[in-house]
Amino acid sequence: MVAQRPFLFVINIVVLTGIVMMMTVRATTDAPMFIFGDSNVDVGTNNFVTECGAKANHPYNGIDFYYSTPTGRFSNGKNIVDHIVRLLGSYQVLSPPPFLALVSQKLTFNRNILRGVNFASGGAGIFNDTGRVHFHKVITLEEQIQQFATVRENITTLLGSPKAADDLLQSSIYIFNIGSNELIEYPFNHSISDPAELKQYIANATQAYAVHLTNMYKLGARKFAIIGIAPLGCAPAARIRNPTGGCAEFMNDGAKLFQVSMQYVLTELSLMLEGFKFSLGNMYTVTMNVIDNPRGNGFKEVKSACCGNGTTDCEVGVTLCSNRDDYLFWDKFHPTEKASELAALALVYGEGSEYVTPMNFSSLAMYG
Ligand SMILES: *[C@@H]1O[C@H](CO)[C@@H](O)[C@H](O)[C@H]1NC(C)=O
Ligand SMILES: *[C@@H]1O[C@H](CO)[C@@H](O)[C@H](O)[C@H]1NC(C)=O
Ligand SMILES: *[C@@H]1O[C@H](CO)[C@@H](O)[C@H](O)[C@H]1NC(C)=O
Ligand SMILES: *[C@@H]1O[C@H](CO)[C@@H](O)[C@H](O)[C@H]1NC(C)=O
Ligand SMILES: *[C@@H]1O[C@H](CO)[C@@H](O)[C@H](O)[C@H]1NC(C)=O
Ligand SMILES: *[C@@H]1O[C@H](CO)[C@@H](O)[C@H](O)[C@H]1NC(C)=O
């Protein structure tokens, strides 16, 4: 019923700093996709978490979404995982809905979970404690994985056989985007001028990430599409605290260390765990290439936020730009829909190892 069915499609052209990727063939899959992470990929989870302080279900968020609806996405329109799912999927046009939304619609729950589920919660991090002080309550990565374990039981019941459920879950794609909030909270508990401490912290975080991924493997996951951390030090929130307006170096260093450390951790996991396949997206390079060459990538403003001045959240009353597609940043931390689409194209179709290793998301999805 949900076997992989490749489709043929036509042409897309991406220019990322002079590199032209011509895609003549587009293979897609109808395998379910499960999404875990933070505000970069949250599609409304936090709307259901009453006590949570990290919410985007209010204007101007969603101003360019269907009917200008704020959905809980931290974006003017779609976010990166909406684009990834649309590019990989043979029928999906957006991310699957939030788990908490599906649970609240009992009649359609069983039908919907077979298409995939999004568990991501804005403010969440790799560690249990991340997000708690600033946002009071978020759905931690650990809880997101517990929710997936429930969905797995529901799928097993539905398909009537553990074997059928295992087959489906092994062919599914697991997209992770987490770790940014560890870097954002880092200065509250650590010295930003001690490189050794930062290195140890990132090593701790990626080790904890590996434990979560191993738990996912034990639950039957095999295909991991991991999105790294963008150069958050160049986000409007970080630049505004810098008297020169430049990027906050410790945050960018942290993002780079995270990438290297994840490459190592994921390679180890793939050697230890039979059938573990991964694809690691380099959001640092993808985003930095736009910052270094805005016009070549179709942007005009890569420093300031479209919504707000870099200190406040995006909400009614703050400044709002009219030419959203010219901006890299939507709000003080999150990219615009346009920037997210460019990044998604690089991760899904990227050639070589600059943007995604050891294979692009498209190859991961079609694998096996
Ligand atoms: C994380 O929090 C959950 C409860 O929210 C708890 O059961 C679990 O032991 C914690 N994990 C760690 C590693 O502290
Ligand atoms: C899903 O599974 C959980 C755990 O087994 C169960 O409590 C819940 O009722 C199931 N949901 C549905 C809709 O069957
Ligand atoms: C950071 O420090 C605060 C107190 O200043 C504490 O409440 C919080 O749990 C700490 N966060 C982490 C991730 O350790
Ligand atoms: C890394 O983890 C170790 C062991 O849990 C802990 O003692 C140390 O403080 C952590 N270091 C940082 C910088 O978070
Ligand atoms: C940014 O906007 C907020 C609210 O709109 C305002 O209070 C603050 O002074 C502004 N900050 C700067 C640096 O312009
Ligand atoms: C994705 O990666 C595969 C394997 O490295 C490569 O053959 C392919 O050209 C890349 N791009 C697309 C669009 O699949």
UniProtKB/TrEMBL annotation:
Q: Which residues cross the membrane?
A: 7-25
Keyword Oxidoreductase assigned to the entry: answer is no
A Gene Ontology molecular function term of the record: hydrolase activity, acting on ester bonds
Question: Which keywords describe this protein according to UniProt?
Answer: Hydrolase, Lipid degradation, Lipid metabolism, Membrane, Transmembrane, Transmembrane helix
| GO BP, sorted A to Z | lipid catabolic process
InterPro entries with a match to the protein in the record: GDSL, GDSL_Est/Lipase, SGNH_hydro_sf, SGNH_plant_lipase-like
Q: What protein family is recorded? A: Belongs to the 'GDSL' lipolytic enzyme family.
This protein's name: Uncharacterized protein
